[in-house]
Write a structure and sequence with these properties.
The complex is a heterodimer of chains A (about 260) and B (about 290).
Chain A: H1 16-19, H2 22-38, H3 42-59, H4 63-68, H5 74-87, E1 93-97, E2 100-103, H6 104-130, H7 133-144, H8 154-184, H9 194-200, H10 202-225, H11 244-262
Antiparallel strand pairs in A: 1-2
Helix pairs in contact in A: 2-6, 2-7, 2-11, 3-6, 3-11, 5-6, 7-8, 8-10
Chain B: E1 3-10, E2 20-27, E3 32-37, H1 43-50, E4 58-63, E5 66-67, H2 74-80, E6 81-84, H3 97-107, H4 112-125, H5 130-133, H6 143-155, E7 161-165, H7 173-190, E8 193-198, H8 201-205, E9 210-215, E10 218-223, H9 225-230, H10 232-237, H11 244-254, H12 266-278, H13 280-283
Parallel strand pairs in B: 3-8, 3-9, 6-7, 7-8
Antiparallel strand pairs in B: 1-2, 1-4, 4-5, 9-10
Classes of the chains: A mainly alpha (about 260), B alpha/beta (about 290).
The structure holds adenosine-5'-diphosphate and magnesium ion.
Amino acid sequence: MFKNITIGQYIARESTVHELDPRMKIIITLILIVGLFLIGSFWGFLFMAAYIMFLIYFSRLSLPLLVRGLKPVIFIILFTLFIHILFTRGGEVLLEWRFIRVEEGGLFTGLFMATRIALLILFTSLLTLTTSPIQLTDGLETLMSPLKVVKFPAHELAMMMTIALRFIPTLLEEAEKILKAQKARGADFESGNLLRRAQNLIPLLVPLFLSAFRRADDLAAALEARCYRGGVGRTRMKELVLKRSDWLALVISLLVVVGVILI
Amino acid sequence: MRIEIKGVHFRYFQEEEEVLKGVNMTIRDGEFAALVGHTGSGKSTLVQTINGLLKPTQGKVFLDGQEIGKDISFKEVRRRVGLVFQYPEHQLFEETVFLDIAFGPKNLGLEGEELKRRTRRAMEFVDLDYESLKDRSPFGLSGGQKRRVAIAGVLAMEPELLILDEPIAGLDPQSRRRLLDQIGALNSQHGISVLLISHRMEEAAVRAQRVMVMNKGEIVLQGTPGRIFEGREKLLEIGLELPPLTDVLWQLKEKGYPLRTDLFTVEEVAREILQCWGGFRCSKISP
Ligand SMILES: Nc1ncnc2c1ncn2[C@@H]1O[C@H](COP(=O)(O)OP(=O)(O)O)[C@@H](O)[C@H]1O
Ligand SMILES: [Mg+2]
C-alpha cells in the first residue's frame, strides 16, 4: 500500500531529462510551479498538462508510474474539489437542491484547484524521479550558496533534505512491516471513528519513530566515522556545468509558462 | 490444526517476476516443521499468505479443510495462527512489558484476570520472570529479552500454530540456543505446532521433525532432516549448506569410510564415527 508513493524516489534512466543540470531542473520546476498558480484558463491547464506529458515522454519514465504517485494525495484533491463546488459562489446557479447549491464559479475554481494540485505533484515527482538525491542536493546547495553571506546554512539544509528524501522509502517500508506485525497481533487499523483510529495508530507510530531514531543514530555515527564536518572546504567530484541543452530547456519552459498565463 | 497451502502464487508487482510459483505445503497438527531456504526465496512471503496479510494471486490456503478468507475469517485465522516476524522486537511499543504482551489478547476482547493469566503464562513459556519484569519498560531490556517479550506477545493469544520467521537472527549464541530450546519445549510440552523459518540448515534441522526446503518460490525438497541431508548435491546447488557435523560425515564418506550421512547431532555423529572406528567397518580401509 505504501509502495505507490513516488515522491522522493529516484529512478535511473538514460534520458534527456535525467541528464539536465540539477540546478536548471530545480529552477525550471520552480518556474513551472509559479506558472501553475498564475494560470486562469481552461486552455492554460490543458497546455500545461500537455507539457508535462511531453516531459514525461522525454524522461523515458512510464506515465502510470507517475500517475500512481497521485494516489496518496487523491483525498486532498477530491476534498479541494468538493469544498469549492459546494461553497464557492459566483456566476450562474447550476444546481440547487435543498441546502446544496452549486454555482458556475465554484465548479470552475474547484476544477482548477484540483488540476493545479495534481500537476504540482506531477512536476515535483518528475524532478525527484529524474534527479538522484546527490545531484539534487548539489543543485540546491549551489543555488542557495549566495545566501551563505548572511549566515544561511545552505550546506546543512541541503544535506538535511537529501537525508530526508533518502529515508522516505525506507521508512515507508518499515511502516508496512510494523503494520503487518501488529495486524498479526489482532490490531485493527481500519474500523472505528476518527478518534479511535488515531489511537489505534500508536502501535504503528511508536515503533516507527524508534526505528527512525535508531537509523538517525547509525547514520550520524557513519558520517562521523568518515570525518564529515559540514560543507566547509569540501570539493566535488563532479562539478556542475551548464550545457546548451540546459539553456534550451529553460527557454522552452519559460515560453510555455508565459504562453499558458497569457492564453 | 492442519494448514494446507495449495498451488499458491504471489507477486508484489504486476510487472515483476512471481515470488511464489505455485507452492504446495502442509503443516500437520502438533508437528515441529522447518522451512529453510536461501534469503529471498520467498519464505517470509509464503507465511504471510497463511493469515491473510498477503492475498495469494492464485491458489488457496486451508485451515482444517476450511478455506481462509472464505469459510473462515482472517481475524479467526490470526487468532489461531501466531506469526512472529523477523526482528519482532522492533514492534514493541507499550510502556510496560505487561501492556505490550497483553496487546494481542486485548485485541481479542479479553480483560481482567484472564488477561493477566495469559500474559503470565506467555512470559513463563519464554522464561521471563513475571513479577520482576511486568512493570519494566520493554525498551530497557537486553536484546534477547526484548525478543522474548515480543514472542510472548504472540504466544499470549494462545495460537495453535506458531510460525517464527528467523527467530534467532542477530542474537548471541547463548540466547540462540536458549530460545531454540524454549521453542522446542513449546512444541513438545505444550503441544503447540511450530513452523520455524531459517536460512540456515543447522538451526532448523536439528529440532524439526520435518524440513521443507524452498528455492526461488517453490518447495524443492521435503522430508525428515536425515532424508533432506541425503540430497546434499541439490542443497549445495541452491546455496544451502549442510549442518557442519553432517558435512564432516559426508567428507569422511567421500574419503571412503562407510558412514551414514543422515545424522546431525553431536551425540549421533560421535557415536557413528566411534562405532565405525572401533568396529570392523572402518578398520578395513583405515589410512
Ligand atoms: N514488501 C515487499 N515488497 C516488494 N517486494 C518484496 C517485499 N518483500 C519481499 N519482496 C521480494 O520478494 C522476494 C522474496 O522475499 P522474502 O519472502 O522476504 O524471502 P525470504 O524470507 O525467503 O528471504 C524477494 O525478491 C524480495 O525482494
Ligand atoms: Mg525473510
